[in-house]
Amino acid sequence: MTQSLSGKVAVITGASKGLGKAMAIALAGAGAKIALVSRDKAKLDAVAEEIHAAGGEAQVYTADVTSEADVVRLASEIEGPVDILINNAGINIRKNLVDFTLEEWSSVQNANVTSVFLMCRQFIPRMTGRGYGRILSMASIMAHISLAQRTAYSTSKTGLLGLTRALALELATEGVTVNAISPGPFATEMNAALINNPEANATFVANIPIGRWGKVEEIGQLAVYLCSEQSGFITGTDILIDGGWCAH
Predict the structure, then answer these.
(1) Is 225 a catalytic residue?
(2) pLDDT number for residue 2
(3) Residue among 61, 132, 153, 225 flagged as catalytic
C-alpha cells in the first residue's frame, strides 16, 4: 500500500539535521506540509530548500522547545489544524552520574521529556475532534538497554516511553495515536567522527547484528508509515529500529 499523507500538516522538532531532517524529507515526499522547528534558522532554511526542490511544502519556525513561552508562540505562528506532531528534539550529556551538576541533569530531562510535554499540551487541542492525529516521539535503544555515562539520557528516554503509553490511552477514543521510535546506531552527522575512523568503525559495527549503520532514510519511511492512515491500530507502543542491537 502507498502511505499518502497528502493534505496533512506535520510539525517536526529538531528538524534541522539528522533523523529529524530525514523524517521531514520523507513526510514531505509523502505529501505532508511540514512545519520545520529548531533553534537554527540557517539549517532549517537549507532543509526547507531541499524539500521545495523536490516539490514538497515546508515552512521554517525557530523555537526553543524547552521554553514554555517559545512553544506557546510557536503554536500561535503555525496556523490551522495540525495532524502530525513529531517530537525529535533532544540532547545527550555523557559523564558519570556523580559528575553531573543539577543544571546539566535538568537540561537533559528538559530537552528530552519536558519539551515533549510542552509540545503535546500545546498541539493536542489542534488534533482532537477530527478523528485523526499522529504523535511520534523519538526515544532510543538507551530506554531498553544502557551504557556507562548515560544515566541522564537513559532516564529521560525511559520516561518518554511512560509518557507515550499514558498519552496514548488518553487520546485513544479521539483517533489520535501516540507512539515512540527507538533508534539504534544511525549514520548521522553526530556519529561522523566514529564512522570516519576505520578501526573504531569496524569495532563498533561488529556489535551490530545486521553488520552496518542504519540509513536515515529507514527512519523516514518508518515515520511515514506510523503517521499514515494504515497505522491506525498501532498506539501506545515503541518501535525499535536498531539492526538487532537489543536482541543481543
Answers:
(1) no
(2) 61
(3) 153
